[in-house]
Specification:
The complex is a heterodimer of chains A (about 425) and B (about 230).
Chain A lengths: L2 H15 L3 H41 L2 E5 L9 H10 L3 E15 L13 E9 L1 H8 L5 E4 L9 E5 L25 E6 L2 E11 L4 H4 L1 E5 H8 L8 E6 L5 H10 L6 E5 L6 H39 L1 H9 L4 H37 L2 E2 L4 E2 L5 H27 L3 H6 L3
Parallel strand pairs in A: 3-8, 5-7
Antiparallel strand pairs in A: 1-9, 1-10, 2-3, 2-6, 2-9, 4-7, 5-8, 6-7, 11-12
Chain B lengths: L1 E12 L2 E13 L4 E6 L5 H8 L7 E6 L2 E2 L5 H11 E4 L11 H11 L4 H14 L15 H13 L5 E5 L7 H16 L3 E5 L3 H4 L4 E6 L2 E7 L3
Parallel strand pairs in B: 3-8, 3-9, 6-7, 7-8
Antiparallel strand pairs in B: 1-2, 1-4, 4-5, 9-10
The chains are: A alpha+beta (about 425), B alpha/beta (about 230).
Chain lengths: ~425, ~230
Amino acid sequence: MPLNVRIGFFLATRALRRASLWTTGLIIGVMVLTFLNLVVVSGILVGLLEGAVVAVRTQYTSDVIISSLNDKKYIENSPNLLLLISTLPEVRAYTARYRQAGVVEANYKTRKDTDKPNTANAMMVGINPAKEDSVTGIGGSIVEGSFLTPDDYDKVVIGGYLLKQYFPVETPGFTTLENVGVGTKIRMSVGAVTREVTVKGILKSKVDEVSMRAYMVDSQFRSLIGRNDGNVAEIALKVAPGADPRAVRDTLLARGAGINAKVQTYEDAQPKFLKDMITTFGMLGTAFSSIGLVVASITIFIVVFINAITRRKFIGILKGIGIHGRAIEVSYVFQSVFYALVGSLLGLILVYAFLVPFFYAHPIDFPFSDGILVAPLGTTLLRVGLLVVTTVVAGFIPAMMIIRKNTLDSILGRN
Amino acid sequence: MIETKNLTRSFQNGDVVTPVLKGIDFAANDGEFLAIMGRSGAGKSTLLYQISLLDEPTGGAIKIDGHDTHRMSEDERMRFRLNKFGYVFQDYALLPELTALENVALPLMMQDKSRTSAYAQAQRALERVGLGHRLHNLPSQLSGGEQQRVSISRAIAHKPAVLFADEPTANLDNESSRKVMDTFVELHKEGQTIIMVTHEEPYAALADRLIRLDDGKIISETKRRG
């Protein structure tokens, strides 16, 4: 070890060991807060969208989503495609959905002929309840009543965004059903076919595609829309643990699934605005973190500057008895690194042992997502490195400024 | 041997120039115990700082063992101070966060000695001044006299060519001052060169030679002993 480093380390360890506990605690406290500012602020910003992405993935698209081509209402030759999917070992579960736009109506029994019908545009979906629940688990999102069972006859589960009590938005052109709860009879109209059904459950989710739908058992929905060829509009696939959704997508495309359908991973299916928002929020997080980094470097600069100024006499004595200025600078660098590392270590423990699990268990209830704290270890360690480097520079500069002053002036306290 | 020729040192504050040393011709021989006296502001401490390489003169020359100090780089001056000189200051100048042993061992470690060897040498130096039982005490846990003896240990532990002392007894009571001066006399008997600034006649009387300064000039030089 170079001599100046050895002496610098010796001086730093003694200075730290015998420093005031309050001062050390305060500096480390500032470093912990800086670290949290670096990691948590951007982590929450990204987590806000990540919560939305995760919700779309778990409740709607699953890992791979196959949907009808843009100019088709359904996926042609669906039975063969479903057969192919069932043979893929990487696929753990899948659900096929019939889908058709329609209208639901609520007050048709009580309204007068002159009253305006209480209707809402909805996407009607026919599902196999057990298969759907095994892939998306939306049965767990029922807030009133219960989820569908295969034997349900003329029963629907309706998304919360179609009901005024769950989505009280007064947007022109957008209407919701009023006074509809579990047990209420409503009318479903798909094309020219209208059927009276009973609301069995109400489903609440922050994923629009889930909450704007009315769900029915697939066998009945087929009869409602008059389809008996088995062609569905959507298939969501959940891959086995460890399997790569992109590999499954590529396998399906290689086997010709792309001829009659769009095959996308959950990432491919993300809307462009969401991808842009993730990038924008990431940039915002980085900007906020950079401000935090500047604040941290100024804090350390001030702390070390005041420390070096008040110890100027001793710095002069050290130089006077022959201790190299570089060794004294190194001692301040070591002290700064110590503060940054201990602060970061405590921050890491706080983030990974407490905050991440906490936000995972208790997501922040944003209007459009359940926000979690996203803190990838690689990015976090990079930020620890940045914090240490910034701190080293911020600690070195003031120390160097004081150490370069005239030795005798420092000893005698002259300016 | 330290020799100065027409040494001057002035301080400038704005447009005001204050000459403190006004042409000092002075020599200190190896093994000599030299005392410098003078009233406040006479320039005795300033002279000590010049010849001990803690400050740079405004004019004139200083030669130490034939080396012209004017030509030395800051690094060379630092190495000279580390290896050839020892310092005892009026206010002890110990580092508050280092124990007595660490204070004394630090310059030895800077000389690239291992920690074990530096600590052993430092311990011997502290035992020599009667502080073998205070090795692990911080300066704040020591009396003024003990702190000054730690300072002397630090100054002599590496067996310097010259020991500089700037009013070493000024802050001490009589008993502690006597112990410090006893140590100086003992060191001198063993051949240590000592240059000491003092304002106390009885302690100056212990030196081989006494130089009196007034208004930045040597006004008298007295040999006290053989």
